[in-house]
Amino acid sequence: MSSDEFYTGLQAMAILEGDRPIILRGIGYTAVVDSYLLAPIYWFADAPITVLKLFNAPWWALTALVTSLTVRRSIAGTNGSRSLPVVAGALVWITPGALMVVSTRSYEAYGLLLLGIAVTQYVALRSIETAGTNRRWSYALGASAGFTFFLHPMTLTAFVPMLLVTTLQARRELRTYWIPVAIGAVATNLGFLAWNIKNSWLSLAVPPANDTYGNRLPRIFTELIPRGIGVMDLNGSWTLGWFSVAMYLAILVCAAIGALTLFARGWSGAVIALPALLIWPMLAGLSSTWFVADGRYAIVGFSQLVIVTVFGLHAVGQRVAAVLSSNTGQRVAHALPAAFAITWIIACAAVLSSIHAPL
């Protein structure tokens, strides 16, 4: 157990005794929703450690499910393989690498923010399908993005690119898009806004950076993501040497191909591809991301990375099938995403023993 995990449990016990916090005290951000949800369990179960250790599992499971639904809707009406939603959901659920350990740590808001980003992605896709003319999806989009921001401000690096696409498409839909989205976002942040008004907008106080954006951006790609997805251990060593390097490069290449494939589909593809590309350079703009040692900040873009990588693998498989022009080629095309995912998971299993120390 780490001190961050103990805070979640101790805050839950304090809530049972009458404390009513809105965010973590002393830092001006990070909602304590997990502690509120944990408090009733503690009232019945007398604060067992096991419950605290497993508390994030439902959020990860739901994120895997929502990610699968997003991929399923994305391939509707296309020649996309029916296995793609399963592969994407499995990768999110198993979460190879340091993020697997994070999934077993009850850090306040981390599991929920992963789910919030996935839900916002799904809702943004549904909003795109209606071109911003469906008020219900517009309210849901504003509420999901707003609540995700309330959980942790760094999530804006994920949902702002989504909103950029949905807003560009629905730019003329004042009554069915702009107003509902704004209402949904404000409604889910009323407590956060009230807290900031009472505390002189403390959340706007930015801690001094330990380095520059130019230092942080390359470390996102050379340290944070590799640690997060399991090709690098916490000491900064490639887990399986050159094979891990090759695996990582293959993931990045497939992600780029997947993003291009999705962009070619218009608005519905761009709402997934643009966040997958912009999350990382935007994340490097946050001063706190100088800390990459345990890979935890990779959680912000993890589900988007999985989605575009799976789409890229499918695109590569389709190209292979076109070259081979045979039943064997078709089988290869359909099997490639699943085979690569299995290889990814097995290869990254080597890192677990080195990262299972307390984070």
What are the defining features of this structure?
359 residues; mainly alpha; 17 helices
Written description of the protein model:
With 359 residues, the chain is mainly α. It is 69% helix and 0% strand. It is built from 17 helices and no strands. It has helices at residues 3-16, 33-45, 49-54, 57-74, 84-94, 98-102, 110-129, 135-151, 156-169, 174-187, 190-198, 213-229, 242-263, 267-283, 302-324, 327-348, 352-355. The longest helix has 23 residues, at 302-324. It is globular, with a radius of gyration of 21 Å. 48% of the residues are buried. The model has no long low-confidence stretch (mean pLDDT 88).
Mean pLDDT: 88
Alpha-beta classification: mainly alpha
Q: Which residue ranges are poorly predicted, with pLDDT under 50 across at least 5 consecutive positions?
A: none
Strand content: under 5%
| Distance from first to last alpha carbon | 9 Å
Order of helices and strands: HHHHHHHHHHHHHHHHH
Q: C-alpha Rg, in Å?
A: 21 Å
Q: What's the main sheet like?
A: none
| Count of helical stretches | 17
Helix content: 55-70%
Shape: globular
How many E-type strands? 0
Topology:
Blueprint lengths: L2 H14 L16 H13 L3 H6 L2 H18 L9 H11 L3 H5 L7 H20 L5 H17 L4 H14 L4 H14 L2 H9 L14 H17 L12 H22 L3 H17 L18 H23 L2 H22 L3 H4 L4
Helix pairs in contact: 1-2, 4-5, 4-7, 5-15, 5-16, 7-8, 7-9, 7-14, 8-10, 9-14, 13-14, 13-15, 14-15, 15-16
